[in-house]
Design brief:
single chain, Arc Repressor Mutant, subunit A, 5-stranded mixed sheet, 42% helix, alpha+beta, 5 domains
Length: 644
């Protein structure tokens, strides 16, 4: 566009040079467009217009830095003193006499031991006028001069090839090792060509490497993930505009050892799964378990975030304020763990009518809110039983020995922290609280969405395994599950079959059994050791109870006592067999004696034995006396006698 005219109303008209269209601007609108780079001023009175940082002197255009040193500022101020005096005196460019008078007048007012010469002042004056009266044109331009490279093009090319071949490689050589390779290449070229190339210094090699973009250096040497992590930046963020629009899910291992509430035994460090609203930063739900990242833990965390928290708050008297998080989120943002890529998790998202967004690999800062909450959860844990990072020359205390927090108390404390403490923290940048953003978002958004049932959700979230079903039901981890419905199905189909079962690792009160013919899931309750044993009992607690029972039996030497009892029983049976062989008679005669266990116990009682010892020896019958005459006589002996 070209300036056309200025109207009386204070507006300005410009004309397009291609189609001669007239555009009218107000002075303020035109100036705002110039400042916003919507319109660029290229010529003024036939001369090119430059910004203060782009000063052209004659035909040479130089770019000046916006930040200059103190020495440069003092130099510009010194030269401007003479140049402005020449401008005020209206000297002509070629009048040496007038420039000399200006120098004499300035040195008289401001004593100067080394004033500029007339030629120097004339050069300053021309540079100042040609630049459009820019003081930056008077600064020392020697630091701004692009010095030519002293190396030949062949040496520069060989150095670039060595850097690309040895340094810019995955796990490549260091800069010093690259320079050694470069020296070998130069010497080889000199032997072949018979001409001395001239070897640059190692500092030249370092400068050429530093001229490469640092992101490209790190990407080629350490990989894209490392470079993206090191040189990451944030612009607009995720652009969430309402609550429950975007929920982030993540796991972490709590830095605390806890005790079993039933036995008081240290059971280890639990895992926590957190569901966080991205817009407000409000905790939607948490789940604590010992199973690590799994589909079951994610399912229970999502289920906890959907359910209203009224009953949960009522069961924990320590929580004094309501926890209003509820409803299904529009989108769940997850990382690339195996549990999030499983078919079961995708089916859960389909049942909830929610979208899934997978975070890029090795870029956790894209869901920074939930990552930050993980750190906050570990910070608020008590000191007893806490796990610390290893440090050099420090022997850490065993957290298992100092553990003093029950698992139930840990859950109550984490729920209280998520409901009362965490939402009331003030964000240091925008000075708002999560609970305020959440409540304002609830008032401005429609009511949250809820699923109509969780039956399929619970089955999908269960842990799958295979077991055999028979008349005794299903045995799983030494627990027996059975029901009338299951046995009715067994009688109607076949007595014994193997099928898939799914169980909730946090509640062993019942399991789900897949019926092969109908392909339906049947809930089966726990029967042995008792129905109340599995209510609210987790798989970890059941395994710990069995392990502690085994340790108790080991301490009591139960196995050794059993083996000793078995040996004593075998000895008793051996003595009984020997005694029976000696007095064995005809079976009919034995049956006539009327022996029973009651008679044996009565005969072996102390009273019966004492009566037998005091009774006289009975006289032999006549038949026995007749038989005694037929016995072969021999000399009797005793084992206690000494034989010569």
């Amino acid at each position: 566009m070209e300036f056309e005219r200025q109207l009386d109303s204070g507006k300005i008209q410009f004309k397009y040079l291609d189609n001669f269209e007239i555009r009218t601007f107000s002075m303020s609108a035109l100036y705002c467009k110039i400042l916003s780079k919507g319109i660029h001023v290229v010529h003024q009175n036939g001369q090119k217009v430059n910004l203060p940082s782009e000063i052209s002197v004659g035909d040479v255009e130089n770019t000046y830095p916006l930040n200059i040193s103190k020495r440069q500022e003092e130099l510009i101020e010194y030269r401007m003193r003479y140049v402005r005096a020449a401008v005020r005196a209206h000297v002509s460019r070629g009048s040496r006499r007038m420039f000399g008078e200006v120098i004499s007048r300035i040195t008289a007012l401001h004593p100067d031991t080394s004033p500029p010469s007339v030629d120097t002042l004339m050069m300053w004056y021309r540079r100042y006028i040609d630049s459009g009266s820019s003081p930056y044109s008077l600064m020392d331009r020697r630091p701004l001069v692009c010095k030519p490279k002293r190396l030949s093009s062949s040496v520069e090319m060989l150095l670039e090839e060595c850097i690309a071949k040895h340094y810019l490689q995955l796990r490549g050589l260091s800069a010093s090792a690259t320079f050694e390779k470069f020296k070998q290449e130069v010497k080889s070229k000199e032997r072949v060509d018979g001409v001395e190339w001239g070897l640059p210094s190692i500092r030249t090699c370092h400068r050429r490497i530093n001229e490469i973009d640092p992101y490209i250096r790190d990407k080629t040497r350490y990989g894209a993930s490392y470079a993206n992590n090191k040189w990451r930046f944030s612009l607009k963020g995720d652009l969430s505009t309402r609550v429950l629009q975007r929920a982030e899910i993540d796991h972490t291992w709590l830095d605390l050892w806890v005790l079993d509430p039933r036995s008081g035994v240290p059971i280890g460090r639990p895992w926590i799964t957190v569901v966080l609203d991205r817009y407000s930063g409000y905790a939607l739900g948490i789940y604590i378990s010992f199973y690590g990242p799994s589909v079951a833990s994610v399912a229970h965390a999502i289920k906890n975030s959907i359910f209203p928290k009224d009953e949960l708050i009522a069961s924990i008297p320590e929580i004094e304020t309501p926890w209003t998080a509820m409803g299904v989120a529009e989108m769940y943002v997850v990382d690339n763990g195996l549990e999030f890529h499983s078919k079961a998790f995708k089916r859960m998202a389909w049942d909830l009518r929610a979208d899934l967004l997978y975070n890029p690999v090795h870029q956790p800062w894209l869901k920074a809110s939930v990552e930050r909450s993980m750190m906050e959860f570990n910070r608020m844990l008590p000191l007893r039983g806490k796990v610390y990072a290893p440090q050099k020359n420090v022997i850490p205390q065993n957290p298992k020995d100092s553990a003093a927090i029950l698992f139930d108390d840990l859950c109550a404390g984490l729920f209280k922290w998520a409901a009362e403490v965490f939402p009331r923290k003030i964000h240091p940048k925008n000075l708002v609280r999560s609970i305020d953003l959440w409540e304002e978002g609830r008032q401005s958004c429609p009511l949250p969405m809820f699923p109509l049932g969780f039956e399929s959700f619970d089955i999908t979230a269960g842990v799958s395994t295979s077991r055999t079903v028979d008349g005794d039901g299903v045995f799983f981890n030494y627990l027996r599950f059975n029901s009338y419905e299951l046995q009715h199905y067994c009688r109607s189909s076949e007595k014994k079959f193997r099928t898939e079962i799914r169980f909730n690792p946090d509640d062993l009160g019942h399991i789900h059994v897949l019926l092969p013919k109908s392909q339906q899931w049947l809930p089966v309750v726990l029967q042995r050791p008792s129905e109340d044993y599995g209510k609210g009992l987790s798989l970890i607690q059941h395994e710990i109870i069995r392990a502690e029972a085994g340790k108790k039996l080991t301490r009591l030497n139960a196995q050794e006592e059993l083996e000793a009892a078995q040996l004593r029983l075998q000895d008793q049976w051996g003595e009984a067999v020997s005694r029976g062989i000696k007095i064995r008679r005809d079976s009919d005669l034995l049956r006539l004696q009327g022996y029973t266990s009651a008679k044996v116990i009565k005969d072996r009682s102390p009273a019966a034995q004492s009566a037998d010892q005091s009774a006289p020896v009975p006289i032999l019958s006549s038949n026995s006396q007749k038989l005694l005459s037929n016995v072969m006589p021999f000399k009797t002996f005793s084992l206690e006698e000494d034989f010569v």
